[in-house]
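Field reference: sequence -> structure
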Amino acid sequence: MGKFDGVLLLSDFDNTLVYTEDALLSGGRLPPLNSANREAIHYFMAEGGIFSVATGRALPSFAPIAPTLPMNGPTILFNGAALYDFAREEYLETAFLPEDIREKLLPVEEAFPGLVCEIYHDGNTIHTLHPSELTRNHLRLTGSSAVEVRSIGEVPPPISKVLFEETGQRGDALEQFVRSRSWAGEFEIVRSGKFFLEITAKGATKGGMAKKLAELLHIRPEDICCVGDQANDLSMLRLAGHAFAPANAIEAVRRAPGVELLPDCREDALAALIGRLDGLYA
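Structure field:
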């Protein structure tokens, strides 16, 4: 029996577990998990805890990363659209977009000529529309290849999520336009990082999938621990019995009720979190 038996710890990946923003902007390589965080996670798991990642990344972009991380639980992918067991190489749960999402997004394409986005399929294929330098850096950072299309309508179903990559005033206008559509309430529309706007199926959030994972593992609500830095992490932070955010998190996350602040992601935030759990579960 370990002190963390029955405790689930879910961490966002980008800029929470590993700081990746500099690499995204520069087109550099993905940084490794640092030794302090790695040792702390190994200690957490050795004491009976279940550690895994809840990420917006797709299966093909996270598959090369998963073997490099100490994890002993299924992974939440596509921002909550899927729960994947890398040990068994299979989906445990999925909540993909309905087929008519392609038809619904055609007016968005028409309103924003040259619209930049990535469209994630349920398998190992990522499609891109009008890829930009940001798109290429993002794909390089995730180690993914992509198939370029002329329209979202060319992407075969099922689609797990759509990731828009428009910045500045055009990005703000795009978000306002998407949220103003009559169908907006049928989907989850959320910011993930400074540059990305995501659409997933209704209920396909990190929090929704974290709840399913906890039920699958028979984890009590008070023993769910989550940490994240962006708006797409808020749903799982609200679910958590213990919620945390690194100092580099956006203000809405840092000020969310019940969220405990950690050091910056670049200053061993996960190690600090596990240190605090060590005291809570003494």
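Note: The radius of gyration is 18 Å.
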